[in-house]
Predict the 3D structure of the following.
Amino acid sequence: MSGGLYTQLLDLACGAFLLAAVIVLWMSELTMIVRVFALQGVALAAIAVLLGAHEERWDLVGVGVGVGLLRAGVLPYLMRRALAALADDRAHSEEARETQPLVNVAASLLTAALLTLLAYAVARPLTELHPTPATRALPVGLAVVLIGFFVLVTRRRALAQVVGFLLLDNGITATAFLATSGVPLIVELGVSFDVLLAVLVLQILTTRVREAFGTTDIDDLRELHD
Amino acid sequence: MLHLSEAPTASAALLTAPAAVPLLVAGAYALTGLRARATAAAFAAELIEARHRVTAQGAVLVAEAPEPKQAPQQWHPTDRAALLSPAAILTCGSLLAADVVRHGPTAAYSGLLRADALTAWMLLVVGAVALVACGSAPAYLTGERAAGRDTAQSVWRYHVLVQAFLAAMCLAVVTANLGVLWIAIEATTIVTAFLVGHRRTRMSVEAAWKYVVICSAGIALAFLGTVLVYYAARQAGIAEAWALDWPTLIARAHRLDPAVTRLGITLVVLGFGAKAGLIPLHAWLPDAHSQAPAPVSALMSGVLLSVAFAAILRYRVIADAALGPAFTRVLLAGIALLTLALAAGLLLAQRDYKRMLAYSSMEHMSLIALAAAIGGPLALSAALLHIAGHGLAKSVAFCASGRILQITGTAKIGRVRGLLAQAPAAAGAFGFAVVALMAFPPFSLFTSELGIARAGFAANAGLGWATAAALLLVLVAFAALAARTARMLLGPGTPTETNSPSTVWPLLLGLAACAALGVATGPLTDLLHAAAQAIGG
């Protein structure tokens, strides 16, 4: 692959990756959010495959395909199933919408812009250490980490918080790929397995929250405080 | 005795066993649980059939059918099988300790598992606390079954998860690979999620949700930090296979890029600090510790916090070599003082005795963080001794509080009076454990807090002021603990508890070990010094 094309494709994939995170902030339908999250998984896999193809490391291409399967296939499938189980009847159709986030959409988008700027500022020493097309895209990974944290803090629906956690995780994986072409395989496997289990645990807990509180609005969880 | 360094298979076995034995026990519980479920289902089917037959014959003697209440009784022996893992962990810990002190660190599986003195020390602490927790679990579970809050199936799930929890903690302690360390600590979050939510009440579900979300997000930050350290290591010319290896990173730390390492270490301290109950991601701790079953609270507070902090201790060595000691000193001292202030403040306003113990854990973890900030042999060995003493005393306190909760039926401090007259054994153990936590001699927390204070005042002026502030806050926490515990224990009451020695021995053992460590560390002295040396003391 020629250098120019590689850089352009990599920038395209990173742009799509960041854009998906911003769109998650914009959306309020959880089904749409999950769909956008799956697209972000595809962009993440594309980053890994591009890096692998450029460095001619076929194990990295394999890891990229695996990451793509997990994040664009398995995790969205689990989320969709949880969503279907929650919004199974008319009475609970509001469970599928993030109706009143703690911060409204306009302010959220503005915050995303600020967080992206912050990510660029923080990532400067990282890029300076070893400037390549891949490390120049590092701020994108950090920006998605920050946006994921923001979603986690400001969303009220349990499943929207799970998406926030997964955005955070996608951002970290992207950072790992862009900085070092991925962590060693055993660590990558362990991390993926842990993320999968964490999502399963959160999915089961979501149903239990609904059983116990009658809603998945996390702001209604106010039994424990000092 | 055969030297482990000359027998690689023996050292590999010793390094594998602490994580593998609990995993095997968990597997055994899972299998017997499945079989018991099958037989229980068959039993229930038979019962229904019998009832049908009885009704078909026109008799209405359904009440004479065998009572299903008999079924839980046959579980008792299996509750005790859980003690196998603490025994194995303690044995491996002692053998590794003897070997490490004499011959230095051993490694297996091309450096993936490695034991140095810190590993052996932490294994001993995990084993001892697990012995207290698993030893008092049978009595606790019997109480829960009698109250109808636990069924055979939920007890079975409890055992499987607790054993998996022990396995994950041991793996976190014996690995030298920082990536595997992260995986093991994240795994503890996953297996304990359902233990926190074990009772399925509104409160425990809420606690479990907060626990998983805050800890997973926090520990994700630690992973980002790990990735950045790996990036710095690769750029410093370390090969891929060794770039997350702790000894290699220390040996080459001076070549790591300072700016990247600084960012990475900050994220790691914040991330693992979340699991260790330190500010700013501490909010899960009081909820999870107050809602989990008592033996699980004992394990979480007694060792999970310090296993996570041991990870910070390991990273601290890398940071000190790469950036100089000033950076982690400021970071850890700041976090320690803020956490301590928060814990002392909330202890003053506390009305729930399990939450009181949880905030006391935050208080002690921040003292350990302060000791790590001070650094040097004295402060670091005091920190390690404090980890052991706090683990023992806090596990006894939590196990006794579980018994108190079963007797009184409330966790509110205001509604509990005259416990010493009502239930002398549980109240006595609780009282002595709180006395130990308030750092009275002869308990080891006195020795370790004294060590931390001495080291703090001997260090530079800034740390002297920090230590003085910390001591003042500890005094506030001391007053809060003393007033509330005295209120609970003293006063008139009618005896209700029937004491059997099997409920008391783990608590007595824990208190005795805590006191013995305070009087003299005995054969453990060399290990303690070697462990402090391994983390830069």
Q: What stands out?
A: Residues 516 and 522 of chain B are 9 Å apart (CA to CA). Chain B touches chain A through 53 residues (CB under 8 Å). Chain B has 20 helices and two strands.
